[in-house]
Amino acid sequence: MKAVRFHEFGGPEALQYEDVPDPQLRKDQVLVRVRACAMNHLDLWVRKGLPGVKMPHILGSDVAGEVVDLGEYVTGLQKGQRVIVAPMVFCGHCRHCVSGVQNMCREFTVLGNGVDGGNCELIAARRDFVIPIPDSLSFEEASAVPLVGLTAWHMLVTRAQIRPGQNVLVLGANSGVGMAAIQIGKLFNAYVIATAGDEHKIQRARELGADEVINHYTQKISDEVKRITGKQMCDIVIEHVGQATWGESMKSLKPGGTIVTCGATSGPKAEFDLRVLFAKQLAFLGSYMGTMGELHEVLKHVFSGRVKGIVDSTFPLSEARAAHERMEKSQMFGKIVLKP
Question: In angstroms, rounded to a whole number, what is the distance separating the alpha carbons of residues 19 and 16?
């Protein structure tokens, strides 16, 4: 089969479109023909260099496709069935996995990070990682949801425990997590304030449901939040930018408010005054992906059309380098999707 791999860390030029052996199907696995694989910023970070990545490596966390073959032990699926592959891998038998918190498993990793992913024509996945999708959902739309939808759901619903009527600030509306968080926030009838970097992204964020949008390049986030909320500020801040925005995120919280973070795009070092933390009784929460139960929960809303996968553009798998270059310029609003 054809796949895009890199043999050493580097820029987009490190990606090689090449022939690789077809996956060898285990008795507990499903062979899926990849029809679409959405990109995430994780692809860029892994390509540039993260620990634990074995070379050569195949990127790609969000796979949608068709069942080609079934292992002897597999039931409940048919050849030709349209499916997605869960964007994570875990052992399935430790105390965390059996109690439903797979993202605490010591073997937990993201597809395309600790293991080879879906930037290829065929992928073999354990039966419990393969989820049927309705015919109403295109492969491109289906691939645009799993990782970011699961991450945003775990952040807002499980970790921050969102409630109707709360003020929620979403940093980076054009990011995958940002787009999902806006929609999930509105699903819970929250008042959603988002940030974006230009008029096109601001308009798209409003179309997704954001009640207000702040230009984070020309406006001070906390001052705008104060104006928009009548000085009430926010109950929840969805953070994934890190160093560049952490101070403004803290200032945007009301007393007793919560920051929940899943990333550090602008850098991992965030400074803050401990006196503000305890005097305002703030909560800082970390969040990492989510569980299979949460993935099925968010997918119910995707399948019903209440949460949508937003596609920016599609590229043939053979043009993965160009797709990476587009993502690095951060010009997109929606997912960049690779199609074998």
Answer: 10
